[in-house]
Here is the input.
Amino acid sequence: MDELHDEELIHQNIDIDDDGAFEILYHRYEGPLLSFFYRRVGNWETAQDLVQETFIKVHQNLRTLRNPKSFSSWLFSIAHQLIAAHFRQEQRKLEIGSIEGSPEAYLVDLEHRSPIYRIIAKEQMEIVYALAQRLPISEQKVFEMKLANPKMLLEDIAKKLEINLSATKVRFHRAKKRIRSWMKTEYPGEFDNIFGIENDTK
Here is the structure.
């Protein structure tokens, strides 16, 4: 039974209420999930708690999974949402001030955060830079210059690129909008506490 594909185990669990099938899924993904959470929180006990919470949510919502073949991706999307929720909670506990909803403001604030937050931030900013590669070249240049130097004024970027200020503001606004949209779609829940995606309507 251990050799069955994820989708076969899911069907067994749903169709014939086979708890043994779910147990196999649990043991199959317990290790990868534990590693995923530990790299982010740096504490085995917390990581184990998050693994348990992930599988509770999986068990509660397994019938909502439309494509059993995508179980792994679905599982880790839940894990991403839980780690984001965890850091939102920790953020409140540590009374860390809210960010203004922009990547550059987040970068400036990093020096005041704990080592664990800086590790997570590094991973997240690597994702931001990767997403920036998809931008139209005109927007990419403005966005990456601002991201590399958060304190740099858009006026200075306009001068360096030899374009007018209005065009610079438009390109930067469009770049942020695209980046946030991709984050929300591809990394659901993971960036909400940093970039204000849920409330971003601009």
Q: What stands out?
A: The chain has two domains: 6-93, 103-193. Residues 6-93 form a domain with the Rna Polymerase Sigma Factor; Chain: A fold (CATH 1.10.1740.10). Residues 19-41 form the longest helix (23 residues). The radius of gyration is 20 Å.
